[in-house]
Request: fold
Amino acid sequence: MKTLLLSGLAGLSLCLAAGTAAAADLTIYSGRGEAFVAPVIEMFETESGLDVEVRYAGTAELAALLQEEGAKSPADLFWAQDGGALGATDKLFAKMPAHVGQNQPEHFKSADGKWIGTSARARVIVHSPERAPADTLPKSVLGLTDAAWKGRVGWAPSNGSFQSFVTALRVKEGEEAAKAWVDGMVANGAKAYRNNVALVQAIADGEIDAALTNNYYLGRFKGRDDKFPVEQRFFADGDIGNLLNVAGVGILETSDSKEAAERFAAFLLTPAVQQYFTSSGNEYPVIKGVIPNATLTSVATVETAAPNVPLDQLSDLPGTLELLRSANLL
Reply:
């Protein structure tokens, strides 16, 4: 992965060399996994001359920590794995400079200009082609509460992307419908796993027949074994189960290193980094001009499948956590 990034960044020195090397530290709270984003951060340090400190943890955990720390937080920038957590911490962010994210589609950033998407990902259903063939899958995620799926479906309630999906479900279908779906899944024997990787592996191992994840996890397995016995697809176009979300960043209002944070945010939207996100991470770029990952469903198809739910409306993470706790899922 790092080789790809190094190659892609060869011509990008002008993006960062425009400023002089600064001595200021930049502290990032990252809900993104260290193995995936550490090479990006290391390259930023090399290109910028800035010393970056990173605190890795779950996105929801860091969002809660930022709320708790308030003005005393050492964080300069929050890198979340989903738009819901960014919305939940939006009031802590400074307004992003207009030049950062100016070439992004509006649906990949906040309407108030306080955070930007850095890569996009779609919710999908992963399934065993033998035990749960595509033509037997429900057309809506809501159909997974049917008796035919009893004890066959997995989910990851503690995952930030799953929690954003539940928030979107509350927004689109209403509180009562969302609670009924969560309770229905529990009653139908949905099996909880610690993360999305475990979900995909559980299908291959025969523990479950289908699961709800983001689009890029299966690609990691297929990259190692193209005969890995799991497939994925979307529900019917517009279904809430196909939520198109983003990972993204916001700069803390209390930061005394805003310039460094702005440079890092801009760095994440450079073509080379965006190429890394899609080529190595199987995510979708959030700017034009990036070579598509041939193993991914096209962006046009993903956007057609996605429900119409603005990411700014996914800010009530506490309400979703309360719902999941009421079902004893957290």
About this structure: The chain is about 40% helix and 15% strand. Confidence is low (pLDDT under 50) at residues 1-23. The beta strands are 25-30, 51-56, 77-80, 115-127, 153-155, 191-192, 210-214, 231-233, 244-251. The longest strand covers residues 115-127.
